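**Folding the chain**
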Amino acid sequence: MKAEDYYQFLDHAWHQETARNSLDRWVDICNQEKWEYSNENMEILVRVFGASWYFTRFIFVYGNKIDALLEVEFKLEDEFKIAGIQFEDILKFDEIEQAINQLRLFKNAIMFKILIAYLMGTLNLESIELALTRLSEKILTALIQVLEKKTSNLNVPISILGMGRMAGNEMTFGSDLDLIFLYEKNDHILNPDLSSIIRLLLRLVAQPSSNGQLYEVDMRLRPHGNSGPLVSTYQTFLKYHAADREIWERQMMTRCRPVLVQSSNIDMLMSELNDYIYAEYADGVLEEQIVTMRRRVENVLGSVRNKHEIKRGAGGLMDIDFITHFFQLRYGIKEKVLQTASTRDAIRQLENSRYINNNDKKTLLDSYEFLKQAETALRLFDLKSVDSFPSDVNSNVSLAKAMGFGNNVDGFMDKYLEITAEVRQLFIKLVGDLD
């Protein structure tokens, strides 16, 4: 094998110099070990080399075992079955740390297959985000099973609410897990060890290792935020949200969904919760509060010096989220179809219910897709929660390639500015002026 024979595939690599160096090294190893690869598989590997340093490291650690992952196309309906690793195997280990490390290997292998589907275009972004969300749910389920088996003190049925992108089935590479832990029995004396077990779970999820970490976890959306208990009863959770909560808290609760259920009454809990969230609001209150919060977030976190902020900046993802929050909170009490945790679904339902017109729906969905594509490309390199990129044109060659603009960086930058300007104008038209 000669590395030069595969340089043609570098045209598809986002970070071309990084991809070239990794390709040279990989071919050297293949020659030493006498591994052979088809052009199709080499093209896939080169695309990965150019997109993600995290998964480039994964390939070199996996060695020729990577063949098994290249041979089978990822399908969500396969329930995350892959050659060489079975999900149930994690329960066979005697030590928790061994089980968790196996879980990290499992997660990396499945995510690698999802990445290939993304880079080769066999699944669209919405399907990729659904797959990554289902994977995170599978990981959480496995963690609870490991702790139930290894820790005799976990004797209270736990339910977990996923928040934000997890709730909406819209996780991307590098997404955090926003979680709320609940248990049902109001008359049950909480085992004092339960909070310690939840802390152990959170530590295991976020613990770094040579195989990476499972996820970063954010618990700030639980009742009373960081000062509140790690786990609440259904009763205390509902009592908290029955109170006169601020609008921004209700906005956040529009993105709430059970992702692990050990109670038959979770539907009842969610129904009662929605009665508090989707309520009657006095004229002008929602507009004022949502505009005020959007302005505050943008001023504090969305105006990054010499950078464009995809999520919190003007016309960014948060503009789109806040538009949907506004209509959901205003009309969700009478239009149950608006009580959805998905931003995309909320936009579609708003047009179906005639709260926005077809042109506005198309603009919002197309803009959301573009911005999420850019966010995905930025996060893929090292699976970190990155939401900004330099305003300097020359620093965005790889991002322009990832977004399908080739070497036309100016074209990408112009499109980004055009889209964010359109989204901002829609926010002003549909919600309110930010000046």
